[in-house]
Amino acid sequence: MWRAGCLEIGHVRFGRRSGETHRRQRRQGAPDRPHTVAEQVGQLRPDGVQRLLNHSEWDADAVRDDVRDFVVESIGARDGVLIGDDTGFLKKGIKSAGVQRQYTGTAGRTENSQIGTFLAYSSSRGRALIDRELYVPVSWTDDRERCRAAGIGDEVPFATKNEHFKWMLQRAVDAGVPFAWVTADEAFGQVRHLRSWLEERAVAHVLATKVNDTVVTAHGTDVQVDQLIAALPRQAFKRLSAGRGAHGERIYDWARVAIRPRWENGSGHWVLARRSVGDPTKLAYYICYGPVTTRLKDLVKVAAARWAVEECFQSAKSECGLDHYQVRLYRAWYRHITLSMAALAYLTALRAHEAVRGEATAKATSSYR
Q1: What does the DSSP 8-state code read for residue 259?
Q2: Where are the alpha helices (DSSP H) in 175-224?
Q3: Which of 9, 45, 266, 369 has a Cα-to-Cα distance from 193 of 20 to 30 A?
Q4: How wide is the angle at C-alpha 49 spanned by C-alphas 43 and 55, nearest 5°?
Q5: How far apart are CA 173 and CA 33, in angstroms?
Q6: What is the pLDDT of residues 214-254, one digit of tens each?
Q7: Residue 175, Cα to own-chain centre: how many angstroms?
Q8: How many CB atoms lie within 10 A of CB 166?
Q9: Distance CA 181, CA 193 (A)
Q10: Whole-model pTM?
C-alpha cells in the first residue's frame, strides 16, 4: 500500500515535470544504454528515451528542487548534515560536455572523465543526493565553440568545485532545508575562503583539511595542524566509534584542540584529529566551527557523516544508474543525473518507511510479552 503511495508521490512531483516516459522508465529500472532502457519501457528504438534527455520540454532544476523537498519530507531532521563531494564518470571520446583527462577518485587515477559535484543530505533516518553540478574545466570554457557544440551556453562560466559547493549550499539554505552541520573532505576543507564563507553565514562545519594546513592558536600564533595535535598528551585522545561501516564499527582515537584567541556569537573553533587504532602514524585532521556547547563526540559524529555521501554514490550508481548514460549534451547530463537522484530519493523514502514500520512492529510485539 505504502509503495503505491510513493509511486503516486513520484507521479505528482516528478511526472508533471517530465512526462509519462520518465515515470515508466523509473518504474522499470535504472538507465543503462539507450536501447536497453527503450526495451524496458516497451519501445523498439531508443529515440523516446533520448528525446526525454535531449529534447523534451521539462525543467531539470525544478525537478531537482522537488527531489530535495521530497528528501526533506522523508528523512529531514533539525540535526541533519549537508555533505559535499564529487564523483567521476568515465567516458570515451572528447565531445561529452566537460570531459577531459583528469583525476577521478572513481578510478583512483587520471582518466578521460566527467566530474560531477554533489550535495548530499544525511540524518538518522537515511541519506540521499539533493543537488548536483557538472564541472566544466577551463579547457572547455576557453573554447566557446566547443561549448556550444555540447550545449553549454555562453553564460556558463568556469567554476571550481568549491564554488559549486557554495552554490548548492546556498540553494539548500534558501529553500529552508533543516540541517545543523556541513562536512566535506580535504579537497573542499583545505580551501580557506570556503571556511570563511561558512563562518560569515554562521554555518557550523567539520571540514577535513591537509596535514600542513595552518591555524591560529588560542595564544594567537600560527601553527600547522599536525604539530598542534602532536603536542597533545596521550590522554587527550578518546577511543570512539564513527558509526557502523561495511565491516562493523569504525573505531578510531579522536582528540580536539580549541583554537583562535577570541570566540564570538556563541560559536567555538577547534582542530579535530582522527587517529588509526591499528597504525597511530595515520592521522586525519579537521577544521571545526560550531556552538560553544559542542562536545567531542558531536564533532566525531559530523566527521563520520561524510561517509554517507560515498554510500549515496554507491547506491545511486549500482541501483539508480547514476553513471549509466550515453548522452553528450550539457542539459542531458543534468536531466539524467536528476532522474537518478529522484530514483535514489524514492528508495531512501521507502527504506525510511520500512525502518519505522519495523520499529513499530517490534515495539508492538514486545508489549505483548
Answers
A1: B
A2: 186-189, 192-200
A3: 266
A4: 135
A5: 36
A6: 999 999 999 999 999 999 999 999 999 988 877 788 999 99
A7: 17
A8: 20
A9: 18
A10: 0.87
